[in-house]
Amino acid sequence: RVEHPAGGYKKLFETVEELSSPVTAHVTGWIPTWLRGSLLRCGPGLFEVGAEPFYHLFDGQALLHKFDFKEGHVTYHRRFVRTDAYVRAMTEKRIVITEFGTYAYPDPCKNIFSRFFSYFKGVEVTDNALVNVYPIGEDYYACTETNFITRINPDTLETIKQVDLCKYVSVNGATAHPHIENDGTVYNIGNCFGKNFSLAYNIIRIPPLQADKEDPINKAEVVVQFPCSDRFKPSYVHSFGLTSDHIVFVETPVKINLIKFLSSWSLWGANYMDCFESNETMGVWLHVAEKKKGRLLNIKYRTSAFNLFHHINTYEDNGFLIVDLCTWKGFEFVYNYLYLANLRANWDEVKRQAEKAPQPEARRYVLPLNIDKADTGKNLVTLPYTTATATLRSDETVWLEPEVIFSGPRHAFEFPQINYKKYCGKPYTYTYGLGLNHFVPDRLCKLNVKTKETWVWQEPDSYPSEPIFISHPDALEEDDGVVLSIVISPGVGPKPAYLLILNAKDMSEVARAEVEVNIPVTFHGFFKRA
């Protein structure tokens, strides 16, 4: 067990300045010549506006990062995304838009009457695109989890325009984890108002760029609607599973109280975090739909409570869906533990907090697609390679028990990545993850989901980001390639941060490209091949 008494991880949550132009990184080791393109990543970069602090990990203003690889040379660039939230904060020198865990006070310059009337305007939803960046057609978007996504230029990192998904398709928001198929089709999920005012979840599909060159977002459509376990309280959804034939939606007990969400926040100084609550009795419901027909499978899968943020992968085998997940046990919301005050605490306090939080576990669930009433009371899983079970109960629900694929006390395997292009939705062997030690990211981990063998990269006082796998152009095997991660190493010599390149086979270092500036936490991103 690695300890962090020096508290270097606090540097992950420190405001930095953007760069006016890219800087050259200092390379040690040898960058593979085939590695050409840009690693694009998002995260918070401004943690206060003047004297007003942001309180939660998901509140800081969006900073877009880029590492460029060309002929063995590396440059680093970063710019703040010019969202409404950022531009208005810069203009008014205060927090103007309420963020995930930070309430924006009404304009102090307004008089009591105009303040009173602004109470009835409803909530101004944030467009702070700090979570991920991904392609739609030939365009690139930074995103959070609201209805707003922000188009950016992947070369200059300039902001192009804000896009409101509500104008194109019936969703109240969309996750920061779309699935992107090899032809460019984009799938995502968001909650919506379904029939007779009850809540539901819509899967949306954005087609690839056509010959007419029209923006594919104009052609977005709903392909299937999943029902909600509670008419008025949608579950928080962060990602979903996709195979060539099926869509998997995991409905967790972390609920959004819409009454609170839609009531005037300004009357009681609320933010998004105040609208979450846990359903302590429902456990977890899993839903499956046929992708091509857009048809719901009428099977009620049930299991015990967990939080879910990231699907690892999903695939079909012999009439079963294998669903691999990074779970956190229990119904208490994990985001309650991600306030900046918690994350910036001294190591002993960080550990104390994490002891109370839901415990992480990577799990495999197996969902039978063909149910016969005659099998009531039996385990329906007949696959030889898994200990996961699915038991048909007399009330016609199917009770699932998982196979544990990774578990360590307060050690999470999180931010999972796979060889996505070739293995998403297909049987696979390897996943790469960020190891969280009491919520502090301190290692990179490769996991064989079949044998549960692990390979680890870790150095003292070094704090990596989500690992991104890039396949070798002539790869013959699933793990032929490299893994990229941004690491900060405060107090370990003169260079505060570097881009790390690992051999994906054994997680050994291939090269690093050091920069002279600190790089705060990043959540997600992708590699854009040149």
UniProtKB/TrEMBL annotation:
GO biological process: retinal metabolic process; visual perception; zeaxanthin biosynthetic process
EC number: 3.1.1.64, 5.3.3.22
Keywords: Cell membrane, Hydrolase, Iron, Isomerase, Lipoprotein, Membrane, Metal-binding, Palmitate, Sensory transduction, Vision
Note accompanying the cofactor annotation: Binds 1 Fe(2+) ion per subunit.
Coiled coil location: none
Catalytic reaction(s) noted: all-trans-retinyl hexadecanoate + H2O = 11-cis-retinol + hexadecanoate + H(+); lutein = (3R,3'S)-zeaxanthin; an all-trans-retinyl ester + H2O = 11-cis-retinol + a fatty acid + H(+)
UniProt: Fe cation binding residues: 177, 238, 310, 524
Annotated localization: Cell membrane
Swiss-Prot/TrEMBL cofactor(s): Fe(2+)
Domain of life: Eukaryota
GO MF term (any one): beta-carotene 15,15'-dioxygenase activity
Keyword ATP-binding: no
Keyword Hydrolase: yes
Gene Ontology CC annotation, any one: plasma membrane
Membrane topology of the entry: Lipid-anchor
Name listed for the protein in its UniProt record: Retinoid isomerohydrolase
Organism: Urocolius indicus (Red-faced mousebird)
Gene coding for it: Rpe65
